[in-house]
């Protein structure tokens, strides 16, 4: 395995000042692997609430109403392949600011339309 400790440290540091961290990178560069590592180090299993893999139709459907789905969640939220949402940033800007502990990792590809 290519060692990714420096990148993991950067992501942890980014969460100390930001609620949302966006992980961008070309296809197959290891975004999902990093996301899963972060999830595991937060003591979570892949089946636990808050990890969304939008390659999965079930997870994609669950974010059709992002406010309902995301509001009750606390702690780390990971949305992998977020570019599959019609309005990728909508779910997160709608998160209530009172949940100060919410931290979100976007794991997505580097397509320009996503970050435009
Ligand atoms: N640190 C690493 N060292 C070596 N191989 C790795 C590492 N991280 C991921 N890989 C391997 O690279 C491949 C792609 O990893 P991963 O699925 O995490 O990438 P991705 O960026 O999420 O891909 P995609 O763009 O398709 O979503 C996998 O076969 C994985 O096992
Ligand atoms: Mg991936």
Characterize the structure shown:
This protein has 116 residues and is an alpha/beta fold. The chain contains six helices and four strands. The radius of gyration is 13 Å and the shape is globular. The protein has a four-stranded parallel β-sheet, with helices on one face. It has helices spanning 5-17, 31-41, 57-62, 66-70, 90-93, 112-115; strands at residues 20-24, 51-53, 76-80, 103-108. Helix content is 37%, strand content 16%. It has one domain (5-115): Rossmann fold, CATH 3.40.50.300. The structure holds adenosine-5'-triphosphate and magnesium ion (MG). The site of adenosine-5'-triphosphate has 12 residues, from helix 2.
Draw up the topology in text.
Elements: H1 5-17, E1 20-24, H2 31-41, E2 51-53, H3 57-62, H4 66-70, E3 76-80, H5 90-93, E4 103-108, H6 112-115
Parallel strand pairs: 1-4, 2-3, 3-4
């Amino acid at each position: 395995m290519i060692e990714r400790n420096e990148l993991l440290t950067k992501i942890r540091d980014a969460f100390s000042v930001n609620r949302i961290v966006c992980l961008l990178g070309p296809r197959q560069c290891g975004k999902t692997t990093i996301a899963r590592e972060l999830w595991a180090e937060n003591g979570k299993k892949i089946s636990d609430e808050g990890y969304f893999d939008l390659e999965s139709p079930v997870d994609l459907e669950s974010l059709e109403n992002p406010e309902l789905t995301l509001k009750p969640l606390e702690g780390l939220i990971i949305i992998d392949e977020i570019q599959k949402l019609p309005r990728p940033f909508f779910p997160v800007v709608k998160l209530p600011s009172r949940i100060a502990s919410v931290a979100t990792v976007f794991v997505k590809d580097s397509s320009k339309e996503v970050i435009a």
